[in-house]
Design goal:
The protein is α+β, with helices and mostly antiparallel strands. About 40% of the residues lie in helices and about 25% in strands. The strands form four sheets. Strands 2, 4, 5, 7, 8 and 10 form a six-stranded mixed beta sheet that branches. It comes from Oikopleura dioica (Tunicate).
């Protein structure tokens, strides 16, 4: 750059006209490069630069000198030194100058040189040379008085990359076209492998998996990858996948040539080997991967929004009528209710579970349908039903424990806990599988335990408190704590251990699922905590501790 600046300062001494700082004055006549930046291949033969004249006074003849200046490219090695004078006759608005480019077989980085305009002269109709003060209108060299010409070396096989590293598309787009560009050379045929990599977007569900190679022919600098996008018509969608470029490869003959160079065999010098190896095709590590985000189609979202505005939302979650609820309660279903194969025939286990749970199905079929009183009737009756069922399970377990000789404390932490918590566990597992995050499972288990504790126990204790408050002159209900304090301490300690494990899992492997070994070890640890709690509480209840 010092060399360029020195050349500019030397050339500046020959400029005899004003050099404009801007193009804001409409009365000014200007001569300048348009455009000021040029990019040419090394083997193009010559760079063609355009000099334009514009302004209100086009009836005069204008002369301007030009010459090339060295940049990172040198005259005689990369281009031929060029200088001369252009004559703009009245009415002429543009001229072109060609600078010959020297093509060699040696790999070089992309280089540039400059061309500068200077010494602007104006001639009137009589042929007399006019000074700037002797004419009514003004003339100057415009702000684009210097042009930059970049020579793209075509001896390099090229650096390959994506034009951008992120992009976002609508899921209804049909297909997406991604450009791969070839920079710093375009010599020879190069094969560039590519493949799609799923992330939150799944291959086969959100997009069609694609893997292959792009063939860049000689002098070709851009190719396109086309990937089909599958429209799932999801209202809220924010998924992504990646497209990666692999290591470029050349024709077998060139591959063998580079292999020879790598082994340092033959009569080539170290410098020749270094230059030749620099010309190998490569991938730009900073732009070898592009992230493609898939978002919901605005047209689909608008259509759904309009439909929802016109539609009664209670219809979407409605259970129809009591008759429909009793029909569903008496029908044997195959597998889970969410099973995708709705036409599957129920098996033996389905019939066994159906008849074991039939009484509960019939009881809850009496719950009002969801479209009665805006869903409030269903909500209130369902909560009451769950509370009654929990109280029934507690009393049943207490009688069972009394029959087999087990204390109420042991019955509560074993049979009652299993009877109410295990279904919650499976429901939470289903919620976690059906959701992208653990939010649904956390909400499910929290809500279920709240219902079991506050309704199943809280309502029963409240009713008992009111009942006993009017008897024997006592206020409230006296309950002997028994081993409750010991069980709470054990539970709190184990809860802290469980939270510590979850924090560890968050850092290594994920809180839910994760690697098989870590998943099994975590599950085994949680089961051990349960049995330890159960054993310690039983030992305390029977005074072994």
């Amino acid at each position: 750059m010092d060399k360029v600046n020195d050349a500019k300062s030397m050339a500046g001494d020959t400029i005899s006209a004003v050099v404009g700082d801007g193009d804001s004055d409409p009365t000014m006549n200007r001569v300048q490069f348009k455009p000021k930046d040029y990019r040419v291949m090394e083997g193009c033969g010559g760079a063609v630069l355009t000099i334009c004249r514009d302004g209100p006074d086009m009836d005069k003849t204008v002369f301007v000198d030009y010459k090339t200046l060295d940049g990172s490219a040198s005259a005689g090695a990369d281009f031929e030194y060029t200088e001369g004078t252009l004559c703009f006759k009245p009415g002429e608005t543009s001229h072109t100058v060609t600078v010959p480019i020297i093509d060699d077989e040696v790999f070089e980085e992309d280089e540039h040189f400059l061309m500068m305009l200077s010494n602007l002269r104006v001639v009137d109709g009589a042929g007399a040379l006019q000074t700037r003060g002797g004419v009514a209108t003004k003339f100057e060299i415009g702000k684009n008085r210097t042009a930059t010409v970049t020579i793209l070396d075509d001896d390099h096989r090229g650096n390959f990359s994506f034009e951008e590293t992120t992009m976002s598309i609508d899921e209804g787009i049909g297909c997406v076209s991604i450009s791969v560009v070839r920079k710093s050379g375009a010599r020879g045929e190069v094969y560039v492998p590519f493949r799609t990599v799923p992330d939150t977007a799944e291959a086969g569900r959100d997009f069609e998996s694609l893997e292959g190679e792009l063939l860049f022919e000689d002098e070709v600098t851009e190719k396109t990858i086309t990937i089909n996008i599958i429209d799932c018509e999801e209202y809220e969608k924010d998924n992504k996948f990646y497209v990666e470029l692999g290591e470029p490869r050349v024709a077998p003959a060139e591959k063998e040539f580079y292999a020879i160079l790598e082994n340092r065999s033959g009569s080539l010098t170290e410098e020749q080997i270094k230059v030749a190896m620099q010309g190998r095709p490569r991938v730009d590590e900073d732009a070898m991967r592009i992230e493609v985000g898939i978002v919901a189609s605005p047209a689909f979202k608008n259509a759904v929004d309009k439909m929802m505005q016109k539609q009664d939302l209670t219809v979407l979650v409605s259970t129809g009528s009591w008759a429909e609820q009793f029909t569903e309660a008496l029908t044997v279903s195959a597998g889970d209710d969410d099973d995708e194969d709705s036409d599957a025939e129920p098996g033996l286990s389905d019939y066994i579970m159906h008849y074991l749970t039939l009484p509960w199905k019939l009881i809850f079929a009496f719950v009002p349908p969801t479209d009665y009183f805006g869903g409030w009737a269903c909500f209130v009756v369902s909560i009451i039903g769950i509370g009654v069922m929990t109280a029934f399970i507690g009393d049943f377990a207490s009688h069972f424990g009394c029959t087999v000789g087990v204390t109420d404390a042991v019955t509560a932490i074993s049979f009652v806990a299993l009877g109410t918590s295990v279904p919650d566990t499976f429901a939470s597992k289903t919620a976690a599988i059906g959701d992208d995050t653990a939010d649904a499972s956390v909400g499910n288990v929290t809500g279920s335990n709240a219902v079991n504790v506050f309704l199943g126990i809280g309502i029963a204790w409240t009713m008992a408190a009111f009942y006993w408050s009017g008897r024997d002159g006592k206020i409230g209900l006296e309950v002997t704590p028994g081993t409750l304090s010991f069980s709470v301490v054990i539970f709190c300690v184990e809860a802290l251990l469980a939270i510590a494990l979850l924090l560890f899992r968050r850092r290594y492997g994920g809180e839910l699922g994760g690697p098989r070994g870590l998943k099994i070890a975590s599950s085994a640890f949680f089961v051990f905590l349960w049995f330890f709690y159960l054993g310690a509480s039983i030992a305390k209840a029977y005074c072994y501790i």
